[in-house]
Amino acid sequence: MKLFDVYPLQPIAIAHAHGAWVWDEQGNKYLDMYGGHAVISIGHTHPHYIKRLTEQLGKIGFYSNSVHLRIQEELAEKLGDLSGKPHFQLFLCNSGAEANENALKLASFHTGRKKVLAFRGAFHGRTSLAVAATDNPKIVAPVNQADHIIFAPFNDETGLETVFSEQGEEIAAVIVEGIQGVGGINEASVAFLKKIRQLCDAWGAVYIADGIQCGYGRSGTFFSHDYCGVDADIYTTAKGMGNGFPVGGVWAGPQFRPWHGMLGTTFGGNPLACAAALAVAEVMESESLMQNAAETGTYLMTKLKACSGIKEVRGRGLMIGIDLTAEKSDLRKRLLHKGRVFTGEAKPNVVRLLPSLALTRTEADYFLEKFYESFQD
Ligand SMILES: Cc1ncc(COP(=O)(O)O)c(C=O)c1O
Is 374 in the pocket of ligand 1 (CB under 6 A)? Predict the structure, then answer.
């Protein structure tokens, strides 16, 4: 059987990895400024991660959510402390799309309403509701088309007020990324997020903060939404949560009352996933990775902003977009094949940097050197 060919692949086969580095089958070494799409949060093959997962595998790999799994409680406790949101409730699932799907469902159960407000440039996943709330018609199949999703312009408070004044009583949820990732590293303004909070309070809608790419310490605080100084009602996480082990989370505020069967999953919250997430949280804490993301990110952005010829440098912490002019559109390719540096992209010409939160200053300098070389080529 052949693989279902849905991914445009780089002609590189990765064989092993460590920290911020990966090696291909020929032994060539690459700096990973992509983190496997914002997933590698504490670095590849971190010894504590390997130890925690190996130990857990020796105890029990899986049991269902029909019994007490103490490690889930341990994880919820740890994440409450690490994020400064100990009063939230954690529902564990397996991916980002699944987290958003459940968050939207929870908001709809809670309000008894159906409409969802999402924004231009948004990406929330590929399952039915999540993809319907994603601003990319190409990946929305006819079966996913929903007339209860409203799209409004991003960072436009007036547009937001107009939608609420016309349909406020029907809106179950507003879902927003703190920094749009796939959309090209566009940060939500403080005023915009505050306006979402205000309108959700006024109209009884649920504010969902999609922290799947921009959250989990990447921006320098636990959630990038935290910069605006107001809480969301629900946060969603995945990607960096398990450093590659599939794990996602819905963080529901205390106002949400669960009932048995309201949400559910077979694999979500399994002991191995919890061990991976706990290992990540422990390393984030012991190695002060949020602080490192803030500092190394600021360093990189300051250097990149000083480089003339770049259209714009956007982002926060270690979620950085380098917006290039059309003539430089093949820079990412040069960086990969000549500089041996992996980066991400956003259309049309944005290089996305989503490295491990443990990226060192030396590694940042190595990236800058390779970037300047490719830029001048
Ligand atoms: C902001 C955001 N939300 C949701 C998702 C979907 O996550 P997953 O691919 O784990 O389903 C992504 C993935 O890129 C994302 O960037």
Answer: no
